[in-house]
Amino acid sequence: MILERPEQNLWIGAAFVITGELMFASMGVGIRFVADELPNETTVFFRNLIGLCLITPWLLREGVGRFKTTVLHLHLLRGIAGVSAMYCFFYAIANIPLADAMLLKLTSPLFIPLVALFWLRESVTPRVWLAIAIGFAGVLVILRPGLAAVSPIALIALLGGMFAAVAKVTVRRLSHSEPPLRIVFFFALIAALVSSVPLIWAWETPSPSAFGWLIGIGLFATMGQLCLTKGLFLAPAARMGPFGYFAVVFGAAYGWLLWDEVLMWWTVAGTALIAAAGMLAASRPGRDRQPADSVPAAPRAVES
């Protein structure tokens, strides 16, 4: 049986999203391997520097004139929020089980409606409020407050989710006047510049093996972004949402194979609740429609 074109696009888009999550989980492996040798600040800087080097030649083909902007303050906000999220996520990846880190990095869609409500004054429907409540219930299951000491590192990962939400809402605000290429260029530039500042006090020269891993981190992150972008171009973000949770599967597999990490039941339960929250928001009825980015419908990339 030959699939109809829309269905073909759905499965091709899903393949790109899943591949993108594999790239991000592989990036997490690289972060783990360099964490014992290099401070978090160095890893974040090299990830941004390599990403900038990879995309700049392609962007410059469009002409320098395409990058003039009148909203530099919004680009700065997006860049600083995105880099802050990166510091939080990279630190979490280096210090807690990889599956937990991959899941907690997907919590940013839970914060997006709240940021949009207080900043852009966008309304939040009862269905979305319910989805947010279920999603944060999943987070509480993972953190298990009262049954064990809540890991400060997990809280840092949640803080990263909040920073990522600010960055994504800023992107939506930028999209009112800025083309995608300009947004991509300014984030790459600002992220590299901002992440270079901590090197004044935190620089450590990487060994040849660590430098190889740093290059791999930049490559995996860039390929992951390209795959996710392609996947979300081929099919609606809401339908792609559940495939983003393959990040947890890949993180658990890497953690088990490389560090003997065991996927705990509360991580599985928390993942199920957060995934259910995303699907609940994504399946909203026609009368509840609102901008797609304002609901926690689709997990997004670790980079913001």
Descriptive labels:
about 300 residues, mainly alpha, 13 helices, about 75% helix, about 0% strand, disordered C terminus
Task: Describe this structure as you would to a colleague.
73% of the residues lie in helices and 0% in strands. The protein has 304 residues and is mostly helical. It has one domain (5-294). The chain starts with a helix and ends in a 22-residue tail after the last helix.
Main beta sheet: strand number and arrangement?
none
State the order of secondary-structure elements, H for helix, E for strand.
HHHHHHHHHHHHH
Helix content: over 70%
Alpha carbon gyration radius? 19 Å
- Strand tally, please? 0
> Total helix count?
13
Average residue pLDDT:
78
The low-pLDDT segments are 287-302
| Binned strand content | under 5%
Taking the alpha carbons of the first and last residues, their distance comes to 40 Å
Q: How many domain units?
A: 1
Categorize the overall geometry.
Answer: globular
Structural class: mainly alpha
